[in-house]
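Deliverable D4.2, example record:
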Amino acid sequence: MTQDKSNGYDAIVTDYMEARSDAGLDVVQNWAASLAPGSTVVDVGCGTGLPLTPVLLDQGLSVFAMDAAPGMIARFRQQFPEIETACEAAEESSFFGRSFDAALVIGLIFLLSPAAQKEALHRICQALTPGGSLLFSAPWQVCAWDDLLTGQPSQSLGKEAYVTLLDDYGMELIATYEDEDGTHYFETRKRS
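Output generated by the structure prediction step:
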């Protein structure tokens, strides 16, 4: 039996689309606005592309997108056929064999096992150019729960562990944010 790299999300694409809200949209808009027009951005765990991809495109960013769920990527490609996509897990990705000015990772990291979280973040950080920006979401506290949509285990390593881990990967914490639903975001930058 092969492991589901989408962590159950390929089986619930329609449910995901119905449940996805605009919470946190302002956090992503402010982050995207801080990037220079034309910057290359990889959206890791892009889902169907809504509601975040239009925000990136509206800022004049060059977007690449990836998700481990074939159904999510199929929906993404229908909506944004001009964007280069990959159907692969972040913890195994070659990131299109290129580097990026920024990476957006919303709603993904905490779905992975601790080892896969560390590997995914390491690969993402390696794919960033010096000075590159990473915005990702994860609870600030150490905690574990069952994902509301899939019922599969989710876990946060906590702010201290994420900051230490990212420091080891050459990143520095710039800011943290919280949206109207209480979702926590970490903004980091790759040291030059």
